[in-house]
Amino acid sequence: MEMDRLDQTLNAYFGYDSFKGSQKEIITSILAGEDVIAFLPTGMGKSLTYQLSGLLLPGLVLIISPLLSLMEDQVDQMKKMGLKNSASLNSLKSSVQKREILRQVNSYKYLFLSPEMLMQQDVRSILRESVISLIVVDEAHCISQWGSDFRPDYLRLEEWIGEYSNVQKLALTATATRQVRQDIEKVLRLEKPSVFQSSVNRHNIYYQTEFLPNETSKLERIEELMHQTSTSGIVYTLSRKKADDYAEILRQKGYSIVAYHAGLEKEDRLIIQQQFINGELDWIVATSAFGMGVHKADVRFVIHDYLPGSIHEYMQESGRAGRDGVQSASVILLHERDHEKTIFTKTNGMVNESDLSLFTHYEGSLSELVENGLVEETKLRIWSYWKERLQYEELESHFNRLKAGKMKDIFAVQSLFYEDRCIRKQLVEYYGEDLTDQQTPCCSVCDAEFSSLILSFTREKPLIENSDWLNRLRNLL
């Protein structure tokens, strides 16, 4: 009878006749009162697991989400589905709007907020008085990936969640190593969770590695790929400036493309994301700030023009291709010095020995260091978190270990593309799986299907240089 009710709810609210993969089993476990960790590949409907569960649970579903654009998109999508008792609490809201949401929080079924918002005392106080039936951590790998680097409030979840020992927890992410899973279980205090893990192998993604002589040839190759096919894609690059430069050059050549990165205004990022989702914009050139939770099924290309910081980062970003199950491709363009740039970019913002000395001996307010441009605000956040938990003599070795871990991750992803072994096989082995069957097309190591493959990446809508949306975006940027 319970299964019948789930099927009926699925059809009535979401319009689907059947569940994907392990969705039904996850929801059944939640309704049975179990804590759950679910590793579901991109496109397998992670959001539906808490959306449908929330309809059948009595209280508030609290969703901790990493990005403002992600939570805004989720709320919009849910309201379109008829789940109108949904809200987000974030920095886009005015003080008056925030107070009103908190005042009537018990009238909502779904509330989205970031770890940083969750740590604010007024928010914590009101939530303590609310009836919360399910705590969801969406994109839960951020606990491990971002907590120690630049968002320590992800680590503070461990202290906060201690106040909700009797409330069920659901952790959702696409991919996770054994260490990431352990970090999730520790921070969310999950002792015996039900774990659902799908294969990380994305059968419909072809993995292409190309080695080029210089940076100029990378842009030329990107344009060549865009010219050969009329499709939708994401280009990932290492810096905001490069994203802006690429977008400007390619836009002038008639491609519907725009840059997306954290240097843009929040409202502009939301507009750009929505244009991309709606198919009014074909290409995004972005730093890693873009793509998480973006519900666009028909991305055919994900192109990297740099070496990602880890295999996990690469899997997350390449996995944004082909969410609809149609053949797609992940292309990485490399030259021999790329690992040096990645090492600098990924470690430059970490707390170092000189930062420790400055923080320790500065006699004024530490916030003055940020205001005067002497140190990045991110470093101050990380320092503030760890100085409360470690002795001073432990801090230097702690940050050195973090840096060594970054270096290890970079060299691991470098070997992924430089070894003469199947890229797909290496990827699934990294996540503890075995690739038993050889598939075709597979990757640039195993076969040479790429040139013929991209000819199929077409769609009916042509590129339009002077469309209304492009003029609006030009005005924004």
Automatic annotation (TrEMBL):
SUPFAM superfamilies the UniProt entry points to: P-loop containing nucleoside triphosphate hydrolases
Domain Helicase ATP-binding: 27-194
Signal peptide (residue range): none
Domain of life: Bacteria
Keywords linked to the UniProt accession: ATP-binding, DNA-binding, Helicase, Hydrolase, Nucleotide-binding
Biological process according to GO: DNA recombination; DNA repair
Protein name: ATP-dependent DNA helicase RecQ
Annotated GO MF terms: 3'-5' DNA helicase activity; ATP binding; DNA binding; four-way junction helicase activity; hydrolase activity
A Pfam family per the record: Helicase_C
InterPro entries found in the cross-reference section: DEAD/DEAH_box_helicase_dom, DNA/RNA_helicase_DEAH_CS, DNA_helicase_ATP-dep_RecQ, Helicase_ATP-bd, Helicase_C-like, P-loop_NTPase
Xref: Gene3D superfamilies: P-loop containing nucleotide triphosphate hydrolases
Transmembrane regions: none
Coiled coil: none
GO CC aspect terms: bacterial nucleoid; cytoplasm; replisome
Residues of the Helicase C-terminal domain: 221-367
Organism: Paenisporosarcina cavernae
PROSITE patterns referenced in this protein's UniProt entry, alphabetically: DEAH_ATP_HELICASE, HELICASE_ATP_BIND_1, HELICASE_CTER
